[in-house]
Amino acid sequence: MRKTEPIKRQEIDENLVATETMTVYTPKELAIFLESCKKHGNMKIETYFRVLSYTGARKSEILALEWNDINFDSKKLTISKTLAEVESSPNTKVTKVASQSAKTTAGKRTISIYTETMTMLKKWQIRQKFEFNILGFKTTDKHQLVFPNRENKFCRPGQANDWYDVIATKYNLKRITLHEFRKTHFSLCAMADMSLEDIMYRVGHKDSKMTRQIYNYFYPEREERSADRFAQFIEKEKYLF
């Protein structure tokens, strides 16, 4: 990669999305998937996919989470890091997994977390401490990972794909990519009538075009709804001015 030239960023054609098909989980399909994770019986995997689905974060952002990134009192989660495979030495092809700061200011964000998800995280924290104590690992370090590997170190970025493959195969589920979990979150936020700006902040998008592309695809009737709301407002308030 040191010998390659950067690819020039291309402008996103916001109308192109109308001719493409985006694959995501519907609310029912997502519920079935998360229930399958629960049936599988691995609390770490169950909690990981719950956080992935309910935050819209990237898979490696979640793998980089530390417990001090989670405020259980305010029900907030701070995303500021991601995992990446980097060269151990410029002279070798050996790589290691390392935590890196988010590439953009927008990528660093603090978002609200649903109560049930926070409860699941708290249960996983207790379970993690119990399991690692048996294995002889201490979990008192302030940088303790939320989703480490069995050696209490960084998981490789592709580990989450393996977890997903196990669940999807075992329960014969519809398959999407882990990045499409992120698009699933976009779509459900749009269906929940969240504003484009709120969704952009939640998922850490600096450029609105990427978010808008998905937003327009799953929420094409927003203009009609806006017109209806405006008309209803005028009818309701016309005698007050």
UniProtKB/TrEMBL annotation:
Pfam families (alphabetical): Phage_integrase
Keywords of the record: DNA recombination
Domain Tyr recombinase per the UniProt entry, residue ranges: 20-228
InterPro entries: DNA_brk_join_enz, Integrase-like_cat_sf, Integrase_catalytic, Tyrosine_recombinase_XerCD
GO BP term, example: DNA recombination
Record-linked CDD domains: INT_ICEBs1_C_like (cd01189)
Name recorded for this polypeptide: Phage integrase family protein
